[in-house]
């Protein structure tokens, strides 16, 4: 090869400095694009979450219409086999008897079963697969819980009492657009959402705080619970209201008695 050809071949290659500059530019672009893509993904997940809740809310309203205004039972934890029944909101327990989720009271109004049903009952951002069995019924691997002040507390063949000891009927709900039917909890251990009056109860370890995952900050302590005094105002959970619409809410807002007690005007 002639000397001039060798020099031309050398000129066609990149120097080390040039390669480092190109790599630096690519790294900078990735650093700019990744947060944007992450935000876009989370927004898409939030839309999916809202859609899930709306579908479940429609199913609950259809159930109520077909059952003369009565709502399904909340199907909480630590129930005996006798306390479980067809009207349970979700048949999620694995003990004392293993139940089939497809037999849940609202399934006939959702028109989905199996894995599609499980997907509908889960927020795409929920880390449900790391939950442990804390109440001996099996882990609750779903994202949404039914307000215990509206749903029946247990099943006994007739419309049973709710958490307030009432046989609760849809006609008893005041201002349904303000009342929570479904809550997106932080690490729920069953399908029952129990709210408290924060003016009387400031327990920082309540298991029924709302999640913060759709807020600007997702705040979870090392114990897996949200610190109400610091993060109770983070609007990070979608909730389904009794008129069927879905909105974003914080734990402090949800714990306002006007939102969780359907009898309050």
Task: Tell me what you see in this structure.
The structure is a single chain. With 265 residues, the chain is α+β, with helices and mostly antiparallel strands. The protein has one domain. It contains 6 helices and 5 strands. The protein has a 5-stranded mixed β-sheet. A hairpin with a 4-residue loop joins strand 4 and strand 5.
Number of domains: 1
The helix content, as a percent range, equals: 25-40%
Structural class by helix and strand composition:
alpha+beta
Radius of gyration: 25 Å
Give, in spatial order, the strands making up the sheet with the most strands: 3-1-2-4-5
DSSP strand tally: 5
Question: For the residues shown, what is the average pLDDT?
Answer: 82
Inertia-based shape: elongated
Query: N- to C-terminal separation?
Result: 94 Å
Written as H for each helix and E for each strand, in order along the chain, the element string is HHHEEEHEEHH
Total helix count? 6
Largest beta sheet, briefly? 5 strands, mixed
Low-confidence stretches: 220-224
Percent range for β-strand residues = 5-15%
